[in-house]
Design goal:
By secondary structure, this protein is an alpha+beta fold. The chain has three domains: 216 residues, no CATH class; 104 residues, no CATH class; 120 residues, no CATH class. It has 15 helices and 16 strands. The strands form three sheets. It has a seven-stranded mixed β-sheet with strand order 5-11-15-14-7-6-8, with helices on one face. A five-stranded antiparallel β-sheet has the order 9-10-16-12-13, with no helix packed on it. The relative contact order is 0.07.
C-alpha cells in the first residue's frame, strides 16, 4: 500500500467521511430483511438516502432468518456468540451506523477501505448461524422452529404490506412485486410446515436446502444469466493477429480505441493500465506520455511519444484514416479500426550507452520530459548511501542482454557485458522484485523513475528476475512451519495412543 497512489488519495478522501444519520441507517437496514424494500436493486423506484455510499445488503434468503434465531437461542456451540457479534458488526458497518462506522474509520487499514462492503460479513455470519440452527433443529424443531418460522413470516408480511403501496405508486410492477413477495414469504412458511410434518433430521435438512435453493433461484436467477463461454470476447480482428505474436511486447489504443480491460480479456498487455491500485511512481510519469482521466485510464493521443518506445509498445489500434505517426507502419486496416506496428520499439531489457545517476525522482521526471529519445540513456536512482548529491552522467556498457518471460511471470535474463553495467528492465519496480544470479542477489535500483535497473557484473551472466516480496517469503515459512508442527503433534498423539493400547 505505501507504494500506491491510492494510499494518499484514500487517506485524504475517507478522512472526511461521516456515518449515516440514524433514520437513514434504519431504512437501509430494512433491505437486509426485504431486498426489494426500495424497488429493483439495479434501479430503485423509491429514493434512497444520499448517505448510502454503496448499495448493499446482508440478505441471503428469508429462510435463513428463523434457522439463525434457532441456532442463536437453542444451539450449544459457543461460537454462536462470536457469529452474532460479527452479524451486528457487518450490519452496523454496512448501513454506516453511528459508532460502528466511526470506530472502523479510526482503525488501521480499515481507515483506508470502504467499510460499507462489510455487508458480506453479516451475510456470512447469518448463514453460519442458520447452519448451527439446522444442526439443532432435530432436537427442538417440533417445539420452537415452527413458531419462529411463522413469526418471521408474519413480520415480513407486515413489512411488505407497509411497502406495497409506495412501491406501486413509484412504478414497481404488480407482477414483479407479487413474484418477489411470494419468494420472500413462502419459504419460511413452508419451513414451519416441514418442521412439523417431515420425520428425520436428514429429510428435514434436505427439504430446507431445497427450499433455499428454490428461493434464491426465483430471486436471483435472472440477475446474472448464464451464457456460453464463447459469447465473451471471441477472437476478433485485429486483436487475433496481435495475440498470435509470440514475442514480449505491449499494446496501446490511440485515444478511445481498444478501451482498457478489453486487452486483458484477449491476454494482451495494455500499457495504459486499468487497475484499482496504481504504482505511485508510474502514476507520476503518466503526464509525460498520456492524458490522465479520473477513475478511468491514461488516454494516449500521441503515438510518436518516445516513452511508448521505451515501454515496448509494439502494436497500436487506432481509428481508420488520418496520417500514420512517424515510426509506425500500417499492418492492417478495417472499416472501424486500423492496426499499426511500431518500428522503434525497444526490447523489455536494454543496456543503455549512458546513465545519469540522479539524487531523487524529481530530477528524473524533469529531464525525461525534455528527452527526445530513451534508447541510449537511462536515469538511475539508487537507494541509501549510493545516491549522489547531484546528477552524475557516466558511460554504460557496451553489452548485450536477452530477456524471456517464464510461465510463472518471472523473467530470465542472459547478459554479456564488457564491464560492470546497468541493465534496464521496463517493468514497474514494485517492492518485492529480486534479481538472482546463481546464489548471488544483484542490487536493484529505480530506472527512469518507476522501472527496474540491475547492476550486473562484467562477462556472461544468467539472471532470474522474480517477484517475491520478503513478507510473502516469511509468511510462507511461517505457514509451512506451522503445518509441520501440527503434523508432528498429530503424529505424536497418534503414536501415544498406540503405545497406550499396547501397554494395556
Amino acid at each position: 500500500m505505501p507504494q500506491t497512489r491510492e494510499l494518499g488519495l484514500r487517506a485524504e478522501l475517507l478522512a472526511r467521511r461521516e456515518s449515516a444519520p440514524w433514520p437513514d441507517a434504519a431504512r437501509h437496514l430494512l433491505v437486509a430483511a426485504v431486498p426489494f424494500a426500495f424497488g429493483s436493486p439495479q434501479e430503485p423506484q423509491l429514493p434512497v438516502p444520499l448517505s448510502w455510499r454503496l448499495p448493499g445488503t446482508a440478505y441471503a434468503g428469508s429462510l435463513l432468518g428463523p434457522l439463525a434465531l434457532l441456532g442463536l437461542g437453542a444451539g450449544r456451540d459457543p461460537r454462536r456468540w462470536v457469529l452474532a457479534a460479527l452479524l451486528l458488526l457487518g450490519l452496523g458497518a454496512g448501513v454506516g451506523t453511528p459508532g460502528v462506522s466511526d470506530l472502523l474509520a479510526r482503525l488501521p487499514l480499515f481507515s483506508l477501505v470502504l467499510n460499507d462492503r462489510l455487508w458480506f460479513v453479516a451475510a456470512w455470519a447469518l448463514t453460519a448461524l442458520a447452519a448451527i440452527g439446522l444442526e439443532v433443529a432435530g432436537e427442538v424443531r417440533s417445539r420452537w422452529l415452527p413458531s419462529l418460522a411463522l413469526g418471521w413470516t408474519a413480520a415480513l408480511t407486515l413489512a411488505v404490506a407497509l411497502l406495497a403501496a409506495p412501491l406501486l405508486l413509484a412504478g414497481f410492477s404488480k407482477r414483479g412485486l407479487a413474484l418477489q413477495t411470494a419468494a420472500l414469504l413462502a419459504p419460511p412458511a413452508l419451513l414451519a410446515l416441514a418442521a412439523r410434518r417431515l420425520p428425520g433430521r436428514v429429510r428435514f435438512a434436505v427439504a430446507a436446502l431445497l427450499l433455499l435453493l428454490a428461493q434464491r433461484r426465483v430471486e436471483m436467477g435472472g440477475l446474472f444469466p448464464a451464457q456460453p463461454r464463447a459469447a465473451f470476447y471471441p477472437p476478433v480482428a485485429p486483436l487475433d493477429r496481435i495475440a498470435a505474436d509470440p514475442g514480449l511486447f505491449r499494446v496501446v489504443g490511440e485515444r478511445y480505441a481498444l478501451v482498457p480491460a478489453t486487452a486483458t480479456h484477449h491476454r494482451l498487455e495494455d500499457v495504459r493500465g486499468y487497475q484499482a491500485l496504481n504504482f505511485l511512481r508510474f502514476y507520476e510519469l503518466a503526464e509525460l506520455w498520456s492524458e490522465r482521466q479520473p477513475v478511468w485510464f491514461n488516454r494516449v493521443d500521441d503515438l510518436e511519444n518516445p516513452f511508448l518506445d521505451f515501454l515496448g509498445v509494439r502494436w497500436a489500434v487506432t481509428d481508420p484514416g488520418g496520417p500514420v505517426p512517424a515510426g509506425w507502419e500500417i499492418v492492417d486496416e478495417f472499416p472501424n479500426a486500423r492496426l499499426l506496428r511500431n518500428r522503434e520499439e525497444l526490447p523489455r531489457a536494454t543496456v543503455p550507452s549512458r546513465v545519469r545517476l540522479v539524487p531523487h525522482g524529481m530530477v528524473t521526471r524533469e529531464e525525461m520530459a525534455a528527452a527526445t529519445e530513451l534508447a541510449s540513456v537511462a536515469w538511475i536512482e539508487e537507494a541509501g548511501a549510493a545516491r549522489p548529491e547531484a546528477t552524475v552522467e557516466e558511460a554504460n556498457g557496451p553489452g548485450r542482454v536477452e530477456i524471456a518471460r517464464r510461465a510463472s511471470g518471472a523473467y530470465h535474463l542472459r547478459t554479456d557485458l564488457e564491464r560492470e553495467s546497468w541493465v534496464v528492465v521496463a517493468e514497474t519496480a514494485w517492492a518485492g522484485w529480486r534479481a538472482l544470479s546463481g546464489r548471488r542477489e544483484l542490487p536493484l535500483a529505480f530506472a527512469n523513475h518507476a522501472f527496474l535497473a540491475l547492476r550486473v557484473p562484467a562477462g556472461r551472466s544468467e539472471i532470474e528476475l522474480v517477484y517475491r516480496p520478503r513478507g510473502f517469503v516469511a509468511g510462507r515459512a511461517v505457514s509451512f512451519g506451522t503445518l509441520a508442527f501440527l503434523l508432528g503433534v498429530a503424529g505424536s498423539l497418534r503414536l501415544q495412543r498406540r503405545l497406550h493400547r499396547v501397554v494395556r
